[in-house]
Amino acid sequence: MSGNVYIPDVVAAKVTDIDPAELGVKGILIDLDNTLLPWKDSVVSEEVRQWAAKVRAGGVGICIVSNTHNPRRLRKIAADMGVESIYSAWKPLRGGFKRGADILGCKLEECAAVGDQLMTDIKGGNRAGCLTVLVRPVDKKEFWGTKISRFFERRIMKKSGLEYK
Ligand SMILES: [Mg+2]
To answer: How far away, in angstroms, is 105 Cα from ligand 1 center?
Structure first.
């Protein structure tokens, strides 16, 4: 972590570009909406499914850590990908990340926290002690609260010279 909780350690264009071996992590704690798939969608792409299978085949666990309060939708997506999941994670609080790391049998410092939002995924991941990876949001559709956060994110990104890949 750089000292600024909003700044990710790594920027990736999309989740399928993430190679845990390259990052040196044993677990991936990943956001759901606009990271793995568009907001409100319920089917992940074949590309994402294959990426998850390859990561898991390499001995690295994946847990979706989401602020969604809809466990049915989340569990279906997680089952499709063959990964673990946590709903109502209350990111940026640390608890959801800790529960995810515990499920994967890893320490928080051994995990990458991946997501599309600085104020939840990256701030929370940095505070939890994870390696943080920012991805570009996969779609423009968003929850109204997220649209408000984006305003502040743009200011943080501009001020710090951070750019999406
Ligand atoms: Mg998201």
So the answer is: 24
Beta pairing, strands 84-86 & 61-65: parallel
pTM over 0.90: yes
- For residue 27, the domain's CATH number is 3.40.50.1000
**pLDDT tens per residue across span 53-103:** 999 999 999 999 999 999 999 999 999 999 999 999 999 999 999 999 999
Could you tell me if residue 3 is inside a domain?
no
Which residues surround the ion ligand 1 when the cut-off is CB under 5 Å?
A: 31, 33-35, 116
Tell me which residue has tokens 């990111």. 91
132 phi/psi in degrees, rounded to 5: -110, 140
Q: 23, 29, 21: which is closest to 11 by C-alpha?
A: 23
Residue 102 is assigned to a structural domain of this protein: yes
Give the C-alpha distances (Å, rounded to integers) separating 97 from 4, 18, 39, 121.
19, 19, 21, 10
Signed CA dihedral, 105, 110, 116, 118: sign only: positive
Dist. CA 21 → ligand 1 center (Å): 24
Q: How far is the CA of 89 from the centre of ligand 1 (A)?
A: 12
Q: How many CB atoms lie within 10 A of CB 5?
A: 16
